Task: structure prediction
Amino acid sequence: MFWLIIPVSYLVFLGGGLLLPGVVLWHRDPLGGGDIAIYLAAVVLMALANLMVCLIMGRILFPQYWWLGQVEGKDVFEYEGIYFLGLRLSRVPGRLQRILFGVDEQMRVWDLAFGVLFLVMLAPHTLAFLTAQQELDRRLPNPTRLAEFLHGPTLSHLPVMRDWGVSWSSDPQLDQRVKRALDDLQNVSNPGDSDRFKLAQVYILQSFHTRRRASDPYLNSPGEQIVFDRATGNRALTILQSLLDLPELERAAWSSGALSLVGLYHISDGNYQAAADVMKQAVAEMGAADESEISRYQVLLLAGQAALLVGDENGAIELLERVLLNEQLPNLAYALAMEQLSDALRLKRQWGKADEMLDKALELYKLERDRAGVARVHLHRAALALDSGQIKDATHELSIASSIASGLNDSFTLNMVARLALAFRG
Result:
């Protein structure tokens, strides 16, 4: 039975340890508690596989009395080729134990040898585990996540930007306007809730810095054009938190809008789980009237993006369908929702439906003459082609997006071009 059970157990444990992490790699979500448990289970399986192969080698290489005594638990001892059965050590004087059974020498030598064998065999099993992870990582889908495609539209629709009548761009003139607005708002005596919310928006705008030198910091790719300054963003976060700390009746008119900007901060900072948690609360607290003037569809779009970034495609689709059911939205709002819905469908590997959504979004962007939107659609198509293994089509779409984006003053789109190009090399 030994030569049937132990080798089969070894193969089962080895296969499970090598392949189980593929469950995590298939979804490519940020590591959660369940994913960590899967990796721990894989490590346990590899340790058991290592134990099984050591038992096989011990059965072949070690003395028979060691196997009978240490593995089968029988009271069997040997001295100079003679086996003693059923003899209890407690009945044998200490000096005779050392003479007959070598408790201090022979028994411990073979136990130590088994431990050394276990450690030696652990090395090839560890190498096999790491090699399997690299191969699974190469073969299993690795969907591209475009974290910044809502940044430009969201900043452009901030209430303070609507008051100025401009859209977001990396234009130095906008930087100067932001600095002047910051000075004016900081000098307001006894600022009200509206003034503090405006100040938070201005800090959010100021937190995105254009990279001017190759030595400037970047998040993912040296080709990035703009980076998020956490220190400046923290100033906005402090103000927003003060609004959220108001008594319940006073904060109700501000909570959804303030929470949305907190979510934007976390998305920009790369803390996607925190963004998803905050945006769930923002959606739950949307009211009929919102003094923050952050529209309901913007809240839903940001919540959908946060859900996508943590791998909750179904949650994102539910939120985006609420946007698309509103027949009174402008074309650009529909296009943004369709653009984001295509991402959710792509991450669910429903590539045909994702392509249909991109076609509809592209029509609306062309109708509105929104070149940044057109560029983003081609970026999404490049990601779609890359995920489905159509490298030639992906390269073509990325080239189109890069050409359009290079003629725009839109650093966020250029960032996505740089990061997607990095994905090709990965």
About this structure: The beta strands are 76-79, 82-85, 208-210, 226-228. Residues 2-139 form one domain.
